[in-house]
């Protein structure tokens, strides 16, 4: 699981990520023609690629579980819960209708299997059991979901449950769902995507009859690069999905809502993914580990330390557009010694020729220790006598 959650501000993403998209073309309105709403963004920057009624409030069905999973991964990150924790299923969780793994009241299941069941099979009973573990009750968990929506600055989202089961006051928009998907990928990282890209798996394997989990996202087998994220369906919501696909380190998020059926939904998502990948290309500006600067320290055992790029800095841009680095500036953080290897010590601010700013972390490539009392005495003596 990725141990660092970047705060995602919908209006400020270009200045807070290691990649950026520039400009936007006029979009063929024939895309997503059967969807009531749709929203496509480039993952790293949040830049809009396509939108159709993106702010319209609709029922999100089981795409709701993406917000629930954000809170579960936050609890895992903070060590409030562990994947190996055993959960005793409540009668309330076991009573959930819709998609389920048929949990029994009092049944014991580890967090990892409940997580797989929620992500792969969209199990309502499993996600409610997790919500009760994290917050004590689904009611308190839903309050956390709505608080998180406010922190993400989502303007058209309100939750009434952790599952997405229909409620008149439970709604979201394609745009908000895309930002929820972005936040979930950020905190869940490769661990999450390993689960959401799994087409089939099993739980209760130590019992007489194991339970077969089959992924509700059939795009996993229909489109190269798809590795998540969450489907949804109720009679009121109709068919919806939040999909993500990655090719050559370029990732897009596609959300379509209120499609007439799953086949139509998937076909229109494929068209939107093809459209997105055909429009943009990517260049690696800086590779992770590249030394950007060297700084002299007077109060450390090492006279010089090297600042390195923490993660690959990729630039995603419209094909045919000339994009260049105009200037860059290193901004040191106010941190006291010692420094751990890999600790963020500064940020690199890159200004492109179109005025866009990209900001990424710079880290120390080694442990840096402060001078001891003996070191200070020896250094002073060398200064006096030599």
Distance between the termini: 53 Å
Radius of gyration: 24 Å
How is the main sheet built?
5 strands, antiparallel
Q: Give unreliable regions as ranges.
A: 1-27
Return the CATH topology of the largest domain: Beta-lactamase
| CATH homologous superfamily caption of the largest domain | DD-peptidase/beta-lactamase superfamily
Order of helices and strands: EEHEHEHHHHEEEEEHEEEEEEEH
Strand order of the largest sheet: 2-1-9-8-7
What does the oligomeric state look like here? single chain
Q: Which term fits the overall shape?
A: globular
* Mean of all residue-level pLDDT scores: 88
Question: Which secondary-structure class do the elements indicate?
Answer: alpha+beta
Number of DSSP-assigned strands: 16
Please tell me the total number of domains: 2
